[in-house]
Design goal:
The structure is a single chain. By secondary structure, this protein is of the alpha/beta class. The protein has helices at about 15-25, 50-60, 75-90, 105-125, 140-150, 165-170, 175-180, 215-225, 240-260, and strands spanning about 5, 30-35, 40, 65-70, 95, 130, 155-160, 185-190, 230. The model has no long low-confidence stretch (mean pLDDT about 95).
Length: about 260
């Protein structure tokens, strides 16, 4: 069964405990705990010891699993700390972006070199480092993702395949996914209305509201044997609890229905 979760950044106006309760009520199996510095640190890596009990108590209360964490930055010191914390909490996946600049060969090679080194460090901690194609970054589409896959042999490196970024790069996600599925260890999911560069206001990122053929994407995922987590990631301004819950619940209903139709839930 493919597990569904929510990146807790959707609930950045609230405590992790409040976020976990809302995510569980919406029907999800787990949570991707946000460690995004300057945006949402439900997992504050620098003060993890002070948060550990709260996080564990929230998980025990709700029954949610920690499916991943998102750190974003490719800073070696921060990632080493993230790997250590992830190992302690039993988080299998640490998600980052590549950084760099689209179309800049030098920053692309620098990003690949950093990912290569950091994946070796991730392996020492028993976790997997995943990177996704991101609008504006050095790794931004399938071509640049494949270059990273070819250059990084470590089994502790994987692809975080986010259809909304690939869609805004001018590709059809359902056509792009088979090309990278062999190394895909995590999936960020959201919809997107229009070509961007922004994915749109949070409500329009709810699965089923935009232009991406997410059912076709899920079909490719299931037919290809993907067994990892799918985490809803909605970025934007702070939302009220009713607004955030509406997006989470609507997306869960859509995704769960798609996956049931495909016998994957």
């Amino acid at each position: 069964m493919i597990k569904l979760g929510v990146n807790s950044v959707l609930f950045k106006a609230f405590s992790f405990t409040e976020a976990a309760r809302a995510i569980r009520l919406a029907g999800y199996d787990g949570v991707e705990i946000s460690a995004i510095k300057g945006m949402c640190e439900h997992l504050d890596l620098d003060h993890y010891a002070d948060q550990k009990n709260e996080i564990k108590e929230a998980l025990e209360e709700t029954g949610l699993e920690l499916l991943a964490t998102e750190v974003t930055a490719l800073d070696p010191q921060r990632l080493e700390l993230a790997f250590s914390v992830a190992a302690d909490l039993g988080i299998p996946i640490v998600n980052v972006g590549s950084g760099g600049k689209t179309g800049d060969e030098a920053t692309l090679q620098d990003s690949i070199d950093k990912l290569n080194k950091m994946s070796e460090l991730a392996a020492q901690h028993g976790v997997i480092l995943c990177c996704k194609a991101h609008v504006g970054a050095s790794i931004h589409n399938t071509e640049t993702t494949l270059r990273a896959m070819d250059a990084i042999a470590s089994p502790a490196f994987g692809i975080d395949m986010d259809p909304s970024h690939v869609y805004r790069a001018g590709e059809k996600p359902e056509d792009a996914l088979p090309q990278v599925l062999s190394r895909t260890k995590h999936i960020h999911i959201r919809d997107c209305l229009g070509n961007g560069p922004s994915p749109g206001e949070p409500a329009l990122q709810a699965c089923g509201r935009g232009d991406i053929d997410l059912f076709a994407y899920f079909k490719v995922m299931v037919d290809g044997g993907y067994k990892g987590a799918v985490n809803l990631e909605v970025i934007g301004p702070e939302l009220s609890m009713p607004q955030a819950v509406a997006i989470a619940a609507e997306s869960y209903g859509y995704m769960n229905a798609c996956l049931k139709q495909l016998n994957a839930r």
